[in-house]
Amino acid sequence: MSLEIKNLHVAIDKKEIVKGLSITLKKGEVHAIMGPNGSGKSTLANSLLGHPKYTVTNGNIIVDKKDVTKLLPQKRAQAGLFLSMQYPPEIPGVTIANFLRLTTNVRTGKNQNPFTFQQKLHEKMDELKMDKGFALRYVNTGFSGGEKKRAEILQLLMLDPTYAILDETDSGLDVDALRVVAAGINKFHTKNNGVLLITHYNRILEYVVPDVIHIMVAGKIVKSGGKELAHEIEKDGYKKYL
Question: Which site among 41, 69, 141, 164 is 20 to 30 Å from 47 CA-CA?
Answer without folding.
Answer: 141
